[in-house]
Amino acid sequence: MAVLVTGGAGYIGSHACVALIQSGHNIVVLDNLSNSCRASLEQVSEITGVKFPVVIDDVNDRAALDRLFTAYQIDAVMHFAGMKAVGESCELPLTYYRNNVAGTLTLCEAMKDYGVRTLIFSSSATVYGEPLSNPITEDFPVHATNPYGQSKVMVEQVLHDLVQADALAAVPFWNIAILRYFNPVGAHASGKIGEDPLGIPNNLLPFISLVAVGKLKELSVFGGSYPTPDGTGVRDYIHVMDLAEGHVKALDKLTDEKTSSGCHTWNLGTGNGYSVLEMVSAFEAASGRPIPYKIVDCRPGDIAECWADPSKAESELGWKATRGLMEMMEDTWRWQSQNPNGFSK
Ligand code: UFG
């Protein structure tokens, strides 16, 4: 099976490339390198011992997609390419809708024209907004509070509409998985690939890692009086390799003859929630470094707590996260301490 991996040079995409290759798939990567670099793909080849085609182009560029689908026989697409910073999306809504929504439309148009039916889409737990309760199941209502989240909600709607339209066709075409990620963290156990955000990180674990290597002075803990056991926000952190393996399981499921069309949604999380302060302590234990922090005001738009009910993915995909909190921390630390400047050596 040849899988096109859009955004394959990015954090989650590069780990998915490793998981795909190690489960015997051929891959072709498409990435515009807007928030990633080619070095991550060289490392993927080093980890797996496999070289693969890399196309530096944009999912928004239909002519580029035509060239790609003509040059390579693609059987399925994993669509990671997209922008993901909540704050930035509030400043640049057009950029977010262009990249995340219009980019997916262009990709789906090209897939349809070239007869590629199988799509695995990177969605996010952000589509649940502030959940009414935890854990969250896939049938909870979806809504968004910022353009990033809205772009995920909109694409999910488009994908459902494609399958809806299939019901009217003589032969259904689309075969789609929507994967709703909780909070991906960690790195490949080799320490060769990991998260390398541009500038000051927005997300918790990349920020803590840079404090640990001395590049940032202290962590600001956003909010200390949430209605949670220690007052700080609680999230469902999932190891990026568990997440990557979940994609391969979803691909297996979609290409299994019994489920050969439709649109399926699966949460990818662990089902466990950890607070910000628990994350700080676990990282200190894994790294042996102190993480100075101060508690500051809540970050606008943040919710108190959110964790997944991952049982649907377990029963339908035979997938379950297996890596615990310490493994997430140790792998993050290995990546960060071996590559204090990320991919720019
Ligand atoms: N946090 C801090 N200080 C920081 C950064 C984060 O205290 O410097 C706290 C947040 O307030 C929150 C927790 O750490 O309680 C996790 O924050 P992240 O920014 O790492 O992650 P979010 O849960 O806010 O959002 C992430 C992704 C979104 C995705 C969402 C899905 O960034 O894209 O998970 O649950 F939609």
Explain what you see.
The chain has 11 helices and 14 strands. It has helices at residues 11-22, 39-48, 62-71, 86-91, 93-113, 147-166, 204-212, 240-255, 276-287, 311-317, 325-338, and strands spanning 2-6, 26-31, 54-56, 76-79, 118-124, 175-181, 183-185, 219-222, 234-235, 237-239, 262-268, 274-275, 293-296, 305-306. The protein has a 7-stranded parallel β-sheet with strand order 3-2-1-4-5-6-11, sandwiched between helices. Strands 12-9-14 form a 3-stranded mixed β-sheet. Strands 7-10 form a two-stranded parallel sheet. 47% of the residues are buried. The chain has a single domain (2-338), classed as Rossmann fold (3-Layer(aba) Sandwich). Strand 5 (118-124), helix 6 (147-166) and strand 6 form a beta-alpha-beta unit. It is an alpha/beta fold. Helix 1 (11-22) packs across helix 8 (240-255) and helix 5 runs parallel beside helix 6 (147-166). Helix content is 40%, strand content 17%. The two termini are 34 Å apart. The structure holds uridine-5'-diphosphate-4-deoxy-4-fluoro-alpha-D-galactose (UFG). Residues 84, 124-126, 182-183, 202-204, 207, 219-222, 233, 235, 276, 299, 302, 306 line the site of uridine-5'-diphosphate-4-deoxy-4-fluoro-alpha-D-galactose.
What is the share of helical residues? 25-40%
Distance between the termini: 34 Å
Stretches with pLDDT under 50, minimum 5 residues? none
One letter per element, helices H and strands E, the order comes to: EHEHEHEHHEHEEHEEEHEEHEEHH
Kindly estimate the percentage of residues that lie in beta strands according to DSSP.
15-25%
Number of strands: 14
For CATH, the homologous superfamily is named as NAD(P)-binding Rossmann-like Domain
Structural class: alpha/beta
| Rg, nearest Å | 19 Å
CA-based shape: globular
Strand order of the largest sheet: 3-2-1-4-5-6-11
Number of domains: 1
CATH class: Alpha Beta
**What is bound: which ligands?**
uridine-5'-diphosphate-4-deoxy-4-fluoro-alpha-D-galactose
- Mean pLDDT, to the nearest integer, reads 96
Query: Any idea what the CATH architecture is?
Result: 3-Layer(aba) Sandwich
The major β-sheet equals:
7 strands, parallel
